[in-house]
Amino acid sequence: MQTLFIALGSLVLYLIAYHTYGRYLARKIFKLDPDRVPPSIELEDGNDYVPTSKGVVFGHHFTSIAGTGPIVGPALAVIWGWVPALLWVLFGSILIGAVHDFGSLIISMRNRGQTVGDISGRILAPRARILFLSILFLALTIVLAIFGLVIAAVFKMFPASIFPCLIQIPIAVIIGLWLHRKGINLIIPSIIALGVMYASVYWGNSGWLASFNATLAQWSILTWCVVLLIYSYVASVLPVWVLLQPRDYINSLQLLSALALVIIGLVVAALFGFGSGEEKIALEIVAEPIRIGENAPPGAPIIFPFLFVTIACGAISGFHCLVSSGTSSKQLKSETDAQFIGYGSMLTEGFLAVLVILACVAGLGLGIPEMVDGKATGATLTGADAYHARYATWQSAGGLAAKVGAFVDGSGNFIKALGLPAQFAVALMGVFVASFAATTLDSACRLQRYVTQELAAATGVKPLTNKHAATIFAVVLAGAIAALPGSPGAALGTGGLLLWPLFGATNQLLGGLAFLVILFWMWRRNLPIWFVIIPAIFMLILPATAMIIQLFIGPGAWLTGETPNYLLSAFGIITLILEAWILIEAKAAWPKAKGILEAPAIGSAKSRS
């Protein structure tokens, strides 16, 4: 019953937080005004600025910020025990992550939908704009270079997920055109889309579709990277209502309904046990509460600061400030929708992370196949044996396949508790992971286009201010990195792994820098800053500490270790220098900023309010 209590208790806690702290921020701090003209209406262009119902924007925003982050991060972090991971997710998402996302969204809406990087030049200092945009560009380049590999890996692990993921694209286009031209209610197309997508999961690996999936699963990683980046280019330059919005919306329907199945299955397993016959397995947490010190798994880094870098999206992620201020702020048709989108989406993601933790520390205990040298022995591991089989060492738990597999197997057990076929449960969870990764990829490409255009405008590189040129530049650069082998002897297409170790600390650093912009925005308006300044300091110090440890401490250190990695070292040092430079600029501007409004966004009559 402990597992059930944690799941339901977390849900209640998030509902209370939304209706108390979230409402306080909306009404007393940001003072959301239904009469304020949002950027989607003020600058409506039918392409990027498109006023949209909050239900559709929620679908886009939630699936874009989530990605695989709230899955792979918590699925690895439980190696330190389930208690630290759970506490960080719960309190991090409510007090830090949701405030970060909500604040970034509001500030962007009050500044013509500009990204926080672009806004920083007026709110902090002129040089901060280029410095901030440079860090954003680096982070998004890493995302674009790696997520093709992530999706390809998921497809190879779960071939049954390929057709259901691909069929989402034409469904999305049809739904987008239907809604845009007919202006009908969302209920009918939502039901139709959800029915078709679940049918594709159930029958999507039957007959000739099984051969189709198997053939595409054999594609090389490089082929998948190229195909997915081409798709990302198309999705980035099309009007948001054609593909990006409807695809993310119908994805969110499927993902949220899948979460509902996981929750119901968890309840059934907790109340009635798991399995058939008299020998039912009781649902219980089979992992240790804390595994640190002498009990730490071999190879695991110290829990502080690495727990807070490993779990990003489920608690606080800098990438979210890009979605809030990049795409979502250009789509909300009313400012009062911002609490639901900015604060509510982050709490939903936090709850997803809670379920991932429970799947890995309790769901696995219901039974997983025993594997020896990568081959199934035919035996089944249950209880603590199942958990320790997956989390014996940091190296064995840290690979993408291990992290995704732990979640899929654990959550799949919850779904099987409902009596649904095992094949369907695994396929559904595979689609769940691949769909999240795909929505992050196409949203990241659009965001990189915005950042490239803003950076080009700031540095005078006029050709890259064009949306097609900026998108092609972003895609080609990411493709060039992805095309490289990620390590000696590795396959082509794994090049994103060369820079991926940077992403954890760099991503969290973005969160700290976004908090800095929020802090200055509030300081200039004489608003209370107590609830922002502590998270800002925490999120500026924490990733810098992690980066310094990775660079200089231990035998595996990038710069001073036994086998130095000069590529990671160079990027890591540059990132730390950029952070220090921005902080120096912020320190100089702080005494002069109190009560002094920044210059308005160009051409906006609303940005000063």
Keywords for this structure?
609 residues; disordered C terminus; 69% helix; two-stranded antiparallel sheet; mainly alpha
Description:
The protein starts with a helix and ends in a 16-residue tail after the last helix. It has 609 residues and is mainly α. A two-stranded antiparallel ribbon has the order 1-2. It has 23 helices and two strands. The chain is globular, with a radius of gyration of 23 Å. It has helices at 2-29, 39-42, 54-66, 69-77, 82-109, 116-123, 126-157, 162-182, 187-203, 208-217, 221-237, 244-272, 303-310, 319-326, 338-363, 383-390, 394-398, 400-416, 422-459, 467-483, 500-524, 530-552, 566-593; strands at 368-372, 375-381. Helix 4 (69-77) crosses helix 15 (338-363).
Q: Ends: how far apart?
A: 50 Å
**Percent of residues in β-strands:** under 5%
Low-confidence stretches: 603-609
Strand order of the largest sheet: 1-2
Compact description:
With 609 residues, this protein is mainly α. It has helices at 2-29, 39-42, 54-66, 69-77, 82-109, 116-123, 126-157, 162-182, 187-203, 208-217, 221-237, 244-272, 303-310, 319-326, 338-363, 383-390, 394-398, 400-416, 422-459, 467-483, 500-524, 530-552, 566-593; strands at 368-372, 375-381. The chain has a two-stranded antiparallel sheet with strand order 1-2.
